[in-house]
Design goal:
This protein is of the alpha/beta class. It is built from 10 helices and 13 strands. The longest helix is centred in the middle third of the chain and has 17 residues.
């Protein structure tokens, strides 16, 4: 009998990759979301509900019993509380929570951040990181002494097709339109990525392995990459030349997010633990090639931020006149 898996979210970026992978693995896939987007595959059963409404969640899930739950969309502890209170636990054996590298107290740590490193207020992600920590702690307390396997995944930056966060698509758009890409300072800040289908493969592998107890995994590519190297890789994916300008934004009284899609701090995780279970990863350039093809197909539907483009026009003018 096919195992039933509930994916919270499931119609956008990461959730879409996960549902696709789970279908390939033979799961009976359900999603729960507000129903604004129809599932990409007709084999997916969509449950329409606002996960923040406790009463409606209990009604929506009351008639179902799932073997596995993958929560992609929870950003606050209260959402996890509502979900657990609404689930039928009769057959539930696997629970995966997609957390974030934003949980690490980065100002007190050196890269790469390990699963056992200190969690706490992240100066860059603020309340988002705190909420993820609280969700992790709640799930651990609630499920840690049960027969349900809890796997908590902490990805860095996720990239790939369907990415609604304007990161690689932002750089692709600059390069496609023959505009320079401005990187903070000297372009040596460290980033780490994971391809959305690779994250989906990790989810499917963990469900298949049925690990016992509570397990926390950093998930990401084996190596970090500098901001300049990332932009250069995006350029290779487009097949066009890319001009990179370095910018002392702090000296100019600017914020890095005024012109660049990442915070200015080194965000690299120690991923050896997950690599012992899932060693394979998609070649970074291949993943970017796929993301670029998606960008070309969808560029007309991507609403780039006008204020960022306006900021960049001024910054580029200043840098090229120096």
């Amino acid at each position: 009998m096919m195992k039933k898996v509930l994916v919270m979210g499931g119609t956008y970026f990461i959730g879409k990759a996960i549902t696709h992978e789970l279908l390939l693995c033979g799961y009976d896939v359900y999603t729960l979301n507000r129903g604004t987007t129809v599932p990409a595959d007709q084999r997916i059963t969509q449950i329409t509900c606002d996960r923040n409404n406790h009463e409606n969640m209990k009604k929506a899930l009351g008639g179902y019993s799932f073997d596995c739950v993958v929560d992609v969309s929870a950003v606050q502890k209260e959402q996890s509380e509502i979900l657990l209170d609404s689930l039928n636990f009769n057959h539930l054996s696997e629970y995966i929570f997609i957390s974030s590298s934003a949980v690490y107290a980065v100002k007190q740590l050196n890269i790469p951040f390990a699963e056992t490193d200190k969690l706490g207020d992240n100066a860059y992600w603020g309340q988002y990181g705190i909420d993820k920590i609280q969700s992790e702690q709640f799930l651990t307390e609630r499920l840690g002494n049960t027969n349900i396997s809890l796997n908590i995944l902490r990805p860095p930056y996720v990239y790939g097709e369907n990415n609604y966060a304007q990161r690689e698509s932002f750089v692709f758009n600059r390069i496609y339109n023959d505009k320079p890409v401005v990187v903070p300072n000297k372009g040596t800040g460290m980033l780490q990525f994971i391809y959305a289908p690779d994250l989906a493969n990790i989810v499917a592998t963990l469900l298949d392995k049925s690990l016992s107890g509570v397990n926390i995994f950093n998930v990401g590519n084996s190596k970090g990459i500098t901001t300049s190297q990332w932009v250069q890789a995006c350029g290779k994916a487009t097949g066009k030349a890319v001009k990179i300008l370095t910018y002392d934004y702090e000296g100019d009284g600017k914020n890095v997010r005024d012109f660049f899609p990442f915070f200015d701090y080194d965000n690299v995780l120690e991923v050896s633990k997950i690599k012992t279970l899932v060693p394979n990863e998609t070649d970074f350039l291949l993943g970017l090639n796929n993301a670029y093809r998606w960008y070309l197909r969808n560029v007309d539907n991507i609403k780039f931020k006008d204020y960022v483009e306006d900021n960049l026009y001024e910054i580029v003018e200043k840098l090229t006149k120096c």
